[in-house]
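Below: protein 1.
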Amino acid sequence: MRQKWIIGVAAMAFWLFAAQLVFTAGITPALEAADASVAAPTLEAKTNEDGSVTLTWSATEAPRGFTIQSADLISGVNTYTAGASDRSFTTGQLPKSNTYNFRVRQDNATGYSAWSPIKTVTIP
């Protein structure tokens, strides 16, 4: 029994490492190269009582829109878009005890900004 438990933990650790590697290394499909002249948005994440997460961010320059990504071990990497005037995004209700990584980037006339620093949230 103990051997199966150790194998299960090792497999989970591998998948956690692989998901984090895919997300943080930017192996997700790139829409365009980052425009170094545009600063990355500042991202904040807050869990809500209903199990959803609200993201808020700042913008620089004149955005045309935003790309938001979330990553977790259950559904992998998901990509969402927000309009030029949007500065927040709320997920649907997420499963308890799961950990999610979020990031956002700005779309402007010269391309995309760099990704924001990743915010990690665990649903209570």
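Below: protein 2.
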Amino acid sequence: MCKALWSVGDQALELAVKTLISSASEDDKIKFLQEAAIMGQFSHPNVIKLYGVVTVGEPVSLQWVMHGETLTSKASLISLNAILLEYIPLQVMICSELLANGDLRSYLQTFVTDSGGTEGKQPLFLRFSKEIAAGMNYLSQKSFVHRDLAARNILLNHSLTCKVSWLCTSWALVLN
């Protein structure tokens, strides 16, 4: 995982860029693209946001994905699910929002080591709980089950807003 700067006109946006090494197995490449496909389905203030997927190498199946909806291939516009089945690019980068304050688990551990402890932090913890619940409720409404909700999978942005992450462990629910 590394930090990148995306310039759009005269504005710059900090991104987190997750890469998969080119020597990864075909199975790992598919799982990595599936993670991006899952992330791209969601748009909620308490769920990590996907900005795009960049591929480099042969075959070049896509150049940019915005919110997981469609991608440009050499032949035509095709769905992300079709890409997952038909193309395995050599190098893939998942670009998501940068959550500079790290995971909730590490953040909460700082209170154990601080002399003040958790004194006076209850309103903040209540806000964290509400934000996590809102993110999980949104995923549930989209028929997704996270399967690994833990403090290590909740990331915090610069204003300490909680974002549910690590969505690759999600399951799509098939409703009859």
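The chain has a mean pLDDT of 75.
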